[in-house]
Specification:
conserved putative lor/sdh protein from methanococcus maripaludis s2 fold; six-stranded antiparallel β-sheet; Elongation Factor Tu (Ef-tu), domain 3; alpha+beta
Length: about 375
C-alpha cells in the first residue's frame, strides 16, 4: 500500500511538470509571434553610389562690381564722412582732401578763366581771331576737367571726394589728418554686394570629382540652420601657388546681404547620380552595362541602420524563408547620409532586416 502511494505521487508530479512546460512553451510561442510581427525587411536597392565631398571656401566681392579710390594727388585728409561697412550712394561725399598741388591748379584755373573772359571780350571787338578764342576756351576746359578728376572743388586747395557708385564700404585706409601720396593704396573701396562670389578650394585629390556646373550646398557658422544652393560657375585651370589648390567659383545672389566679404563657408557637393532607374523586364544586365559606359557603376545600397558592427566587421541579418534568418558578413563600399553601399556579401534578392535586427542577431549568435 505504501508503494502505491509513492507511485501515485510521482505520477501527479510528472503531470504537473508536463503541464507547466506546456504553459511555458505556449507563452514562448506567443512572445515569438509578437516579436516576428514587429520585424521589417527591405531588399537592397541598385544604386549609383553617392558620396559627399566637403570643400572649404570664403565669400569674395564680385570684382566687376568693385571700385577702388586711389589718390591722384598728394595731400592731407582733412575729414572723412564714412565708416567701414557703411552703405553709400553715388555722388555722396566720402572725404575732404587738402593739397598744395591742387591749390596751384586752382590758381591756374582762375588765371585761365580770366584769360577766357578777356578773349571773349576781345573777340567781340574783333581784336582776336576765332582760333585764338577756341584755344583759350580749350585751356580753361582742360584745367577744369583736370581738377574735376580729384573731386568737387571746395576752394582753398580743398576738394571733396565723391562716391563713384552706390554700394558698401568694404575697405577703409583713410582717417582725418593722415597724409596721402599719389599712387598710394586705395583710400577706400566700395562694392555692390547684391551678388557675391563664393570661392571654394579644390585639392588635387578631389579634382576628378569636381566639375563646372555641379550643384553645391553652402553652409556657414553665421546661419547654422540654413543651406544655400548654387552651382559651380567656373573652375580655375591653374593651381594657386601659395595654397596649392584650384579655385572653384560659385556666383550667389545676395539681395538679403547674408553673405559678407571674407566670411568662411563650407561647400558640399554630391559625387554620384543617385538611385538607378527602375528596371523593367529583363533589362537589368543592359542597364548595368549602360551605367558602366557612363562611368557610374551600380552598387547595392541599404539603410545604414540595418548594419551591425561586431568584432571589427559589418554584418546584416537576412530573412531566408518565413521566420527563418541568417547572418551575412558584408564588405562596405562607403556611406552617404543614411545610406550604406555594399561592395560584397549581399544580392539584390536578399530580404535585409531593417528593424529589430539587433535582437535577431543576438538570438542567432546565442544558438
Amino acid at each position: 500500500m505504501k508503494n502505491l502511494k509513492i507511485i501515485f505521487a510521482a505520477i501527479i508530479i510528472l503531470q504537473s511538470c508536463s503541464s507547466g512546460k506546456n504553459n511555458e512553451n505556449t507563452q514562448e510561442d506567443t512572445i515569438k509571434q509578437e516579436f516576428l510581427a514587429d520585424i521589417k525587411t527591405e531588399k537592397p536597392q541598385l544604386s549609383n553610389q553617392e558620396q559627399e565631398l566637403t570643400l572649404s571656401g570664403k565669400v569674395e566681392c564680385d570684382p566687376n562690381k568693385v571700385v577702388y579710390y586711389t589718390p591722384l594727388i598728394s595731400g592731407i585728409v582733412e575729414r572723412t564722412y564714412f565708416s567701414l561697412g557703411d552703405k553709400v550712394q553715388k555722388g555722396q561725399t566720402m572725404l575732404n582732401l587738402r593739397s598744395s598741388e591742387l591749390s596751384s591748379l586752382q590758381s591756374e584755373l582762375v588765371i585761365a578763366r580770366r584769360s577766357l573772359q578777356s578773349a571773349e571780350a576781345m573777340y567781340e571787338d574783333r581784336l582776336i581771331s576765332e582760333r585764338e578764342l577756341i584755344e583759350a576756351r580749350a585751356e580753361y576746359e582742360k584745367l577744369r576737367s583736370s581738377i574735376a578728376l580729384y573731386g568737387e572743388n571746395i576752394g582753398g586747395g580743398v576738394f571733396a571726394v565723391k562716391s563713384p557708385m552706390t554700394g558698401f564700404v568694404v575697405a577703409k585706409n583713410a582717417s582725418s589728418g593722415s597724409t596721402v601720396s599719389e599712387g598710394d593704396d586705395p583710400l577706400f573701396t566700395i562694392a555692390d554686394l547684391s551678388n557675391v562670389w563664393v570661392i571654394a578650394n579644390v585639392y588635387a585629390g578631389d579634382l576628378q570629382s569636381v566639375k563646372q556646373g555641379m550643384s553645391v550646398e553652402i553652409t556657414t557658422l553665421a546661419y547654422p540652420n540654413e543651406i544655400f544652393y548654387g552651382k559651380i560657375d567656373a573652375l580655375s585651370q591653374v593651381f594657386d601657388p601659395e595654397e596649392k589648390v584650384l579655385k572653384a567659383r560659385i556666383v550667389m545672389n545676395n539681395k538679403e546681404l547674408k553673405f559678407k566679404p571674407e566670411m568662411s563657408v563650407v561647400v558640399r557637393l554630391r559625387v554620384g547620380a543617385g538611385l538607378a532607374p527602375a528596371h523593367q523586364g529583363n533589362n537589368e544586365e543592359g542597364d548595368r552595362k549602360e551605367g558602366d559606359r557612363k562611368g557610374r557603376p551600380y552598387v547595392l545600397a541599404v539603410p545604414s541602420d540595418a548594419l551591425i558592427f561586431d568584432d571589427n566587421k559589418y554584418f546584416v541579418v537576412v530573412e531566408t524563408t518565413s521566420e527563418k534568418f541568417e547572418i551575412k558578413e558584408i564588405q562596405l563600399q562607403g556611406h552617404y547620409q543614411k545610406t550604406s553601399y555594399i561592395r560584397s556579401g549581399l544580392s539584390e534578392n536578399d530580404n535585409v532586416v531593417v528593424k529589430n535586427q539587433l535582437l535577431v542577431y543576438s538570438e542567432l549568435k546565442g544558438k
